[in-house]
Description:
Strand order of the largest sheet: 3-4-1-2-5
Number of strands: 8
Oligomer: single chain
Order of helices and strands: EEHHEEHEHHHEEE
Number of helices: 6
Low-confidence stretches: 61-95
Radius of gyration: 18 Å
Distance between the termini: 51 Å
Mean pLDDT: 74
Shape: globular
Largest sheet: 5 strands, antiparallel
Helix content: 25-40%
Strand content: 15-25%
Structural class: alpha+beta
Amino acid sequence: MKTLIHTASQTIVEIDDQTAQDLFDQLSADGFKIGLTSLRKLLNGQATTCCGFEVVETEDDEENTGVVADQGVVTTPIVEVATVVDTTAPVVTETAAVEVKAMRESSKMYKAAVKLIEGATVAELMVEFGYTEGGAGATLFCKQSGVLSKGYTFEKEKVEGRGTVLFICIDGKRLTSADQILVQAKKS
């Protein structure tokens, strides 16, 4: 069974036998922004990730497929991707050690990561570093070159008057100081 996962919001969408248009309509109704062509590329295997989404192949379970088919597209918060998706609660699996990669201390990514220790919104990062919305999103959420590619994750918290504040984490634990961010050794 194929499952569509939105990594930033930790949401999964079971694909079942839905058409790309049906999935697109459902995702749009749920507030996700992904183009129909991008979604088709993900579903056809022409792209591995796009707009924070990726397709994961899961094992089919006879008991759960009937429940999912009756409900159509199901979105469920997840803790980790598991082989069976329970539509009533997240499924927790054993986790492997997280590999964290170093950042250049002079990079905007490192500076944004330091800012995220105390918490920052995407809008605050845009102002602080002169990012466009897409640039801030890429710096944070791109799995090939962003903060996520370095092994870090984010915790979100709604703060009245600020909106959604992001905090940088390693293995689900918030960082408390810049010393916890792995920095590349300076070349001499």
